[in-house]
């Protein structure tokens, strides 16, 4: 048989046959004087077996191990590992579909946060915050999304719950917005920083992890400050200093 005939018989493409040759899975037959390879039935049997194994989800390295073990013991081990892996994938897919169902329900009810899919703790917090068109509040919401994802910020998010009911918060955001074009020496900077820091509950300070975005005063702090106008950044910098002092107590 020529390579095209072999490929058709085994249900693969000639390109796949050449790839299996290159990977060492299918021995190459000797060439005739005219340069053509001539395949026998044994090649077709091996090729069909490779196709069946790859269709099961085995990688080529695993197929190579199976082909090297004529007794079939290696195949049993590989199939068990494959089954275990598929079971893990099923569990993960089920979990993701449950989460997707929750998000679809929020979207249909009009309660999906503007930030998109979020962990439940963060979605609950953002959903409870007062509705406002404050640019500073929008930045704060964006910064809060950095707390989600690895579980370390969940305690901080829970501790922030009282802030959503604090009547001072909307006015504090408005005062921060008002500093967008103010000079660095504006006398409103210090008092606003003190009030913003005082609005952060002690439970939040206790929940801040030793490592992570919340506690980072270096690269994260610099990046966050760069997101504000100079006078606003001065307020935020002072708030960070005051909170750091409370953490050290």
UniProtKB/TrEMBL annotation:
Membrane spanning residue stretches: none
Coiled-coil region list: 79-106
Keywords annotated in UniProt: Coiled coil, DNA-binding
CDD domains, A to Z: HTH_MerR-like (cd00592)
Pfam families reported for this sequence: MerR_1
Gene3D superfamilies: 1.10.1660.10
SUPFAM superfamilies reported in the protein's UniProt record: Putative DNA-binding domain
GO MF annotation list: DNA binding; DNA-binding transcription factor activity
HTH merR-type domain residues: 1-69
Superkingdom as given in the UniProt entry: Bacteria
Name of the protein in question: MerR family transcriptional regulator
Species name: Streptomyces agglomeratus
